[in-house]
Design goal:
- The protein is an alpha+beta fold.
- It is built from three helices and seven strands.
- The protein has a seven-stranded antiparallel β-sheet with strand order 1-2-5-4-3-6-7.
- The longest helix is centred in the first third of the chain and has 28 residues.
- The protein is elongated and about 90 Å long.
Length: about 150
């Protein structure tokens, strides 16, 4: 015995198909909104006005020849090693801001203390996870900024 395909069957297929599509779109939109970490800049026009100044700062930092390496000491405390192309950076001060990449944890200021040589260690550990460190190194009248990632 065969059944005939009626308009009710077609209505059921169409409702199931469009219902699935709408449900998936709603789930994806919800995840996108809940995990959005924020904006890169609040006003792109204002940021564009500072662009040439940022380029000049980058050229000055590159001329200094400073580089950094970020590690973790085993207790989730970041360690920053600073290298200079010429001379030592003994006496440099290091400050950082730790930012959670998805904005799920609040930003944290990190204060570093010298370990000797060109190494500095954070005074407090970071919670476990992935962190973006915005590091500022100052010595004498010079300042350099670095971004690095740390998996604490």
């Amino acid at each position: 015995m065969t059944r005939t395909f009626t308009g009710w069957h077609m209505l059921g297929i169409m409702l199931a198909m469009f219902g699935t599509i709408i449900a998936v779109n709603l789930i994806m939109a919800t995840y996108a909104i809940r995990t959005f970490g924020g904006t890169v800049v609040d006003n792109s026009y204002v940021a564009s006005q500072d662009f040439n100044h940022w380029l000049a700062e980058a050229r000055a930092q590159k001329a200094l020849g400073w580089t950094i390496a970020v590690t973790e000491d085993g207790t989730h405390r970041p360690v920053v090693a600073i290298r200079a192309r010429a001379g030592s950076l003994e006496g440099a001060t290091v400050h950082a801001v730790a930012i959670h990449p998805l904005g799920r944890a609040p930003m944290r200021d990190i204060v570093f203390t010298p370990m000797g040589g060109d190494r500095h260690i954070a005074t407090w550990p970071l919670p476990a996870g992935r962190w973006l460190l915005r590091i500022t190194v100052r010595q004498g009248g010079h300042t350099a900024s670095f971004d690095d990632e740390l998996k604490a």
